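Reviewer has doubts. Consider these tokens.
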Amino acid sequence: MKKVSILVGSLRKGSFARKTALAVKEMFPEGYQAEIVEIGHLPLYNFDYDDPNESDFPVPTAYAEFRETLKASAGVLFVTAENNRTVPACLKNAVDIGSKPNSDVAWKNLPAGIISHSVGKMGGYSSQKNLRLALSYFNMPLTGQPEVFLGNSPTLFDENGKLTNESTRDFLQGYINQLVDLIEKNPKS
């Protein structure tokens, strides 16, 4: 069973990022287990936690568990909103936590996909581009075209949080298939 960690760039329980993540979680094929990995409880990143010369700041248990979850994953899917034209703070914090210690980066060579959204027409374009820039540092294989920018996200779901637009559902299924193909072609060693 190949595990895929889904990181949601919104802490709000009813967020459209979470609704999207729940929808695509079911689109992974047999042999894959996609799970949302919660990031809201992670303390803000502080390098003192990972500084071998600093004994007053032990690594938080939440950091260690998060890093191990990523390392045990065959791939990761980021599903994010856009906050002030960039990546939401909770998601950037998770990226920073997974980037340390330098000798054991959890993101290294981890295949990844990104789905962004916004309540407006741009579909989270700026957040996705900023996230891609941050992830490029870790030599992560990333999905290419088509990229997923879901605009007007409130119109995509019914009152129960289910996708209502068949063409959007098909598009997302195609993207998940692309991510699975990327994972298959880039197995972690």
